[in-house]
Amino acid sequence: MNQLKKQRIIIGSPVFQSPEILEAFLNSLSHLKKETISVDYIFTDDNKDVQSSRLLEEFSPEGSAVTILQGLKGSSYVCNEESHHWSDALMYRVANYKNEIIRYAIKQQYDYLFFIDSDIIVHPDLLEHLKKAEKEIVSEIFWSKWHYNTPFEPNVWLFDEYDLVPRQLGEELDEKEMEKRKSEFLNQLKVPGLYKVGGLGACTLISRSALLKGVDFSPIMNLTIHGEDRFFCIRAEVLGIPLYVDTHFPAYHIYRKRDLPGVTDYIQQCKEGAPFTIYHPKWSTHKITLSMIVRNEEGRYLKRLLSGLKNCIDEAVIIDDASTDNTASICREELQGIDLHLITNEQSMFSNEYRLRKLQWEETVKTKPEWILNLDADEIIEPDFWKDLYKLLDQKDVNAYGLRLYDMWNDTQYRDDKLWNAHTRYHTVLIRYQPEVTYKWNTKAQHCGRFPVCEGSELITETPYRIQHFGWAREEDRLEKKRRYERLDPDAVYGIKEQYDSIMDSNPNLKEWKVYDRK
Q1: Which helix H or strand E contains 331, and what residues bound it?
Q2: Hey, how many other C-beta atoms are within 10 angstroms of the C-beta on 319?
Q3: Which of 27, 58, 205, 305 fits 130 for a cystine, CB–CB 3.0-4.6 Å?
Q4: 519: Cα separation from own chain's centroid
């Protein structure tokens, strides 16, 4: 049987990058699927760091040619934890690099050129998927905080330099209507699809037909709009080439070094085929306050939890219950840019959980929260919850949401028997704070609950989302918890003795955790 000839794609990128980010970028490129395509690479090495240049030289994916062009070096490009800063001279230089790559792609008769910035991580299926769109120019979406304390925004826009408000030519809008339309446009981009846009960049597939028509990044000197991607998009529009963004396989942007930990979670989600919601952009305008109690969480699940939460929340209140390790430092590092209230107990209060939970509550309500998300440091909520969070918070008649909680007995299995069945019930983890009502605590020294009860009728709305509770997932943790309950509740006054006794069962009934696709 004759095989169809594979279409040839060359991936191009001018590179001025730190070794840590560049290594993650190159690793992502090396895992791209190539069922109907062949892939080569061309990089402009503009690096100051010799280790980065070495990484480019050593990059040699099987079956692919790699071409390295030498840049001018000595860049004045400033990239820090606040933002990226571009001078006109640097922008013109990068435009020249990209144009040189375009000329190479045309001369070597490639079917497509895929431009990608060297801080972008992509799904393995992306190139095959974008090719099937059959558009002359199409970008894959990603979301970034262009400045440290600003909301997440996309790599595409509608008008001018970065206008995200849909409108007709000459249409005048008041501020309220502009905000409404912008929100609708951004929400549309969160739904998997293919959408026409006015501008795009950084992760773009360009067909040979578009290249031959004359698209490039040269400055248009009678425009004050800044940026080589703008020049490219304006030129494409003038040439009659529509611009599109695809949102099926969102890429991940390592815009700052503090974004690096999220790469691991993104790659894991790619393997699972799950929606890409790690570092979820905080879509909602509602204020979300994370409330937690932590103690000696270093080397466990805290870092993973916080790295997935920090772009969903506005504020965090954390009680460090007399940790003797680096738990507090992990909180500060992972929640940089978040308004963090970290309260440290000199002595642990866990022997009277009611007092500890009450302190957590009191410190949380001091911040005047709107919605309170109360999680333990070993609880991971599945990705679909974050994708739909803004819809939940918009429900005006709902004040509390419940999720099912699964006691994981290892990384992939949860316990399921008559004593271990928390997953059959709904556990409140997200509530709307109502300062006008009275809250009353269960005063039990153990197992008092994470929230007080709202006096009157506090109805919990059940959701389909699930929590993986990893507090029991390691044998050493189970043994420690058994000893703790033997010490704090020897007569099982607050818990169930049979359950305490079953913690170290040698052959528990376990079931596989399944990842669901709720599309």
Answers
A1: helix 327-334
A2: 23
A3: 205
A4: 19
List of long-range contacts for 433-437, beta carbons under 8 Å, 24+ apart? 433/365, 433/369, 433/370, 433/371, 433/372, 434/399, 435/365, 435/368
CA triple 45-48-53, angle to 5 deg: 45
Q: 194 has which bridge partners?
A: 246
Element (H, E) at 13: strand 7-15
261 or 352, higher pLDDT: 352
Q: How far apart are CA 313 and CA 289, in angstroms?
A: 6
Q: For 370-419, write each residue's pLDDT tens digit.
A: 999 999 999 999 988 887 887 888 888 899 999 999 999 999 999 999 99
Q: CA distances (Å), 485 to each of 352, 357, 489, 496, in order? A: 12, 18, 5, 10
Adjacent-strand bridge partners of 511 = 414
Measured in degrees and rounded to the nearest 5, phi and psi for residue 497 equal: -60, -40
For residue 197, is pLDDT > 90? yes
CB 153 within 8 A of CB 144: yes
> Partners of 317 in the beta sheet?
291, 341
State mean pLDDT over 306-333.
Answer: 91
Question: Read out DSSP for 102-134?
Answer: HHHHHHTT-SEEEEE-TTEE--TTHHHHHHHT-
Q: At 14, which helix (H) or strand (E)?
A: strand 7-15
Crossing angle for the helix pair 228-238 and 88-107, to the nearest 10 degrees: 50
Token pair of 504, please?
């170290």
Q: Considering only residues 118 and 459, tell me which one the structure prediction assigns the higher pLDDT.
A: 118
Taking each helix axis as running N to C, give the angle between helix 50-58 and helix 19-30, from 0 to 180 degrees, rounded to the nearest 10.
10
Give CA–CA dist 266/248, Å, rounded: 14
Measured distance CA(170)–CA(232) in Å, rounded: 24
* Residue 17: closest CA among 116, 158, 108, 146: 116
Let me know: does 167 contact 173? Beta carbons within 8 Å.
Answer: yes
The answer on pLDDT for 69 being more than 60 is yes
Q: Reduce the DSSP state of residue 440 to 3 states and report it.
A: strand
Nearest residue to 461 (alpha-carbon basis) of 375, 405, 400: 400
Answering whether pTM is above 0.70, one says no
Quote the longest CA-to-CA distance of the chain.
Answer: 82
Cα distances from 150 to residues 144, 282, 306, in angstroms, run 9, 10, 19
Whether residue 326 is predicted with pLDDT greater than 60 in this model: the reply is yes
